[in-house]
Amino acid sequence: ENARVGDEAVVAHIEAPPAEAERLASLGVAPGVVVRLLRRGAALSLAVGDARIALGGAWARAVAVVPT
User: Fold this and answer.
1) Can you give the pLDDT at residue 68?
2) Average pLDDT, the chain
3) How many whole angstroms separate alpha carbon 3 and alpha carbon 25?
4) Of 14, 15, 24, 36, which has the fewest CB atoms closer than 10 Å, so is most exposed?
5) How do residues 20-33 score in pLDDT, each as one tens digit?
6) What sign has the CA pseudo-torsion 53, 9, 42, 16?
7) DSSP 68
8) Burial (CB count within 10 angstroms: exposed 0-12, middle 13-18, buried 19+), residue 19
9) Tell me: the pLDDT tens digits for 8-65?
10) Can you tell me the distance from the alpha carbon of 1 to that of 67, in angstroms, rounded to the nearest whole number?
11) How far apart are the first and last CA of the chain?
12) How wide is the angle at C-alpha 45 spanned by C-alphas 15 and 19, nearest 5°?
């Protein structure tokens, strides 16, 4: 089942080179982190705690989330 906009989801994995994965982790996006999906598509918008993060292009495709 795919997570839908408005759902809470867990970051399952990140398929990116180590430097990019570290950058995402510094923004709070890392495997095991619970996020809320704000927008999904070409761009991925996530709420991570009180922060709002928008990821586009390859970064959006690199983040795999599953519903909680």
Assistant:
1) 87
2) 91
3) 20
4) 15
5) 999 999 999 999 99
6) positive
7) -
8) exposed
9) 999 999 999 999 999 999 999 999 999 999 998 778 899 999 999 999 988 888 999 8
10) 7
11) 10
12) 35
What predicted TM-score, i.e. pTM, was given to this entire model?
0.86
What is the b/e burial string over 30-58, where b = at least 16 CB atoms within 10 angstroms of the residue's CB?
Answer: beebebbbeebeeebbbebeeeebebeee
Tokens 């970051």 locate to: 11
Amino acid at 37: L
Residue 62 amino acid letter: A
Would residue 27 be called left, alpha or beta, if left means φ above 0 and alpha means ψ between -120 and 50 degrees? alpha
